[in-house]
């Protein structure tokens, strides 16, 4: 999956070749540069991997054609929003034309010959449509996207909490151009056009195969996700912070327990809003700890079955079985007899810090946490097998309380990115260091 950077401060005479030269020797795929201009003189650049994007962030603050540029981590959603804003502004100018100075940087998107989109042009492309009536046909969609090559369309399928249409284009260039049709009319209906990917297309195909009949209009939609590969020690509060929903009720975050009643690496989140649900689905593939989390939608029935399978109420009751009561007392005695060092291993006195530039220095991280008076040795930078920085670090604190206070910096802008913080134990820190 491509990682997208946003560049600000581009010289009005700079083009795609200048941007590519600026990032050498990093490889930018064909169609990986899109210059949108505007008052901030912006461009969006796509890199194949997160590692390449982190290395590219080192160029922030350096000039292109004499103009200093700044780089920020971005996303396809941000680019879509930017394009939509520019299209609306262009429509307003057409309605009330005003003279424009020749020295003004262009406010319309600029496509270079080899940079019409942010992904290789040889691949197919996809978009989602919302707001269409259920009677819409493929022919209607082809007429709507006049001038673009629609290869196939699947109408009236479930897309997250709502229903819509998924369209496949022969070339990703056409799919990118299709985003400009957002908010245009199909007959008397205003159509919303959003980006999509192959996974969404395959999901729509699977729905058609499994549910060929039109679902009931009264069917209730669930805003529920199942998350895998979480740290087993993550609390409900930490999970809510990870998914940007600190205000949902604790009862809407459910840990999946094993047969012994211990947490597994899975959890469920029940949302009340479609926006929160969509945001959670888009977090699939993000790094948490040393693992990559997977997020997918799930029905309430399937969630209930998974929870009940290992629920302690459906196992032999410890209170009713004296053998288990004695075992629990024995376990408690053994726990009290453990050395304090082993107990300290379970305390969450460390932070796992992510989403920083690859060349971040310990002194810079120390300044970020200046109020906690860290020693330089308390900060360990993570590096790959080649010795290059990964933009991640682990930090040791004197107590759980200090680590919890430091975690409140989570999401703060640091060196051009939003730093991500996860509280971990000493044992987890050792596991992370052993895995790199």
Short description:
It is built from 14 helices and 23 strands. The radius of gyration is 26 Å and the shape is flat.
Write the layout of secondary structure elements.
Layout: E1 3-8, H1 16-22, E2 33-37, E3 42-47, H2 50-56, E4 63-64, E5 67-68, E6 70-73, H3 76-95, E7 125-130, H4 138-144, E8 150-159, E9 162-169, H5 172-178, E10 184-186, E11 189-195, H6 198-210, E12 224-228, H7 236-242, E13 253-257, E14 263-270, H8 274-281, E15 287-288, E16 291-292, E17 294-297, H9 300-309, H10 322-337, H11 340-346, E18 350-354, H12 362-368, E19 379-383, E20 389-396, H13 400-406, E21 413-414, E22 417-418, E23 420-424, H14 426-435
Antiparallel strand pairs: 1-3, 1-6, 2-3, 4-5, 7-9, 7-11, 8-9, 10-11, 12-14, 12-17, 13-14, 15-16, 18-20, 18-23, 19-20, 21-22
Keywords: Repeat, RNA-binding
Pfam families: RRM_1
Protein name: RNA binding motif protein 12Ba
Strand residues, percent: 25-35%
Total E-strand runs: 23
Q: In which range does the helix fraction lie?
A: 25-40%
CATH class of the largest domain: Alpha Beta
Strand order of the biggest β-sheet: 8-9-7-11-10
Summed up, the helix count is 14
CATH fold descriptor of the largest domain? Alpha-Beta Plaits
Shape: flat
Gyration radius, in Å: 26 Å
- What's the quaternary structure here? single chain
CATH superfamily of the largest domain: RRM (RNA recognition motif) domain
Structural class: alpha+beta
- pLDDT under 50 segments (min length 5)? 98-121, 211-220, 313-343
What's the architecture of the largest domain in CATH terms?
2-Layer Sandwich
> Average pLDDT across residues?
76
Task: Give the end-to-end Cα distance, rounded to a whole number of Å.
Answer: 22 Å
Major pleated sheet: 5 strands, antiparallel
- How many structural domains in the coordinates? 4
Pfam family, one: RRM_1
Keywords: Repeat, RNA-binding
Organism: Kryptolebias marmoratus
InterPro entries: ESRP, Nucleotide-bd_a/b_plait_sf, RBD_domain_sf, RRM_dom
């Amino acid at each position: 999956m491509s990682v997208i950077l946003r560049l600000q401060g581009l010289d009005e005479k700079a083009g795609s070749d200048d941007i590519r030269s600026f990032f050498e020797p990093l490889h930018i795929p064909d169609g990986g540069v899109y210059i949108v201009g505007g008052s901030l003189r912006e461009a969006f650049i796509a890199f194949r991997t997160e590692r390449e994007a982190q290395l590219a962030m080192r160029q922030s603050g350096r000039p292109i054609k004499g103009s200093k540029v700044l780089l920020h981590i971005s996303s396809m959603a941000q680019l879509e929003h930017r394009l939509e804003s520019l299209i609306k502004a262009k429509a307003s100018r057409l309605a009330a034309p005003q003279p424009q100075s020749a020295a003004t940087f262009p406010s319309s998107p600029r496509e270079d010959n080899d940079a019409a989109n942010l992904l290789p042009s040889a691949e197919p492309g996809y978009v989602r449509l919302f707001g269409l009536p259920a009677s819409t046909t493929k022919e209607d969609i082809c007429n709507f996207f006049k001038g673009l090559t629609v290869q196939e369309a699947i109408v009236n399928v479930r897309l997250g909490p709502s229903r819509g249409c998924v369209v496949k284009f022969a070339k990703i260039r056409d799919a990118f151009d299709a985003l400009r049709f957002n908010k245009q009319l199909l007959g008397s209906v205003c159509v919303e056009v959003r980006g999509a990917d192959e996974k969404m297309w395959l999901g729509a195909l699977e729905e058609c195969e499994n549910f060929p009949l039109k679902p009931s209009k009264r069917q209730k939609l669930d805003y529920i996700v199942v998350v895998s590969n979480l740290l087993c020690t993550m609390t409900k509060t930490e999970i809510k912070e990870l998914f940007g929903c600190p205000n949902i009720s604790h009862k809407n975050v459910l840990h999946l327990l094993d047969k012994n009643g211990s947490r597994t690496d899975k959890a469920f989140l029940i949302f009340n809003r479609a926006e929160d649900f969509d945001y959670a689905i888009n977090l699939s593939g993000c790094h948490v700890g040393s693992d990559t989390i997977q997020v997918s939608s799930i029905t309430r029935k399937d969630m209930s079955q998974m929870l009940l399978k290992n629920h302690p109420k459906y196992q032999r009751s410890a209170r009713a079985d004296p053998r288990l009561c004695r075992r629990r007392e024995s376990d408690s005695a053994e726990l009290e007899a453990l050395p304090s060092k082993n107990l300290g291993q379970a305390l969450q006195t460390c932070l796992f810090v992510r989403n920083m530039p690859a060349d971040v220095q310990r002194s810079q991280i120390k300044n970020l946490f200046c109020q906690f008076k860290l020693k330089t040795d308390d900060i360990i930078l993570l590096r790959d097998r080649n010795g290059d920085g990964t933009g991640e670090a682990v930090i040791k604190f004197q107590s759980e309380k200090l680590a919890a206070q430091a975690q409140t910096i989570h999401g703060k802008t640091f060196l051009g990115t939003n730093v991500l913080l996860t509280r971990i134990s000493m044992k987890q820190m050792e596991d992370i260091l052993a895995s790199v």
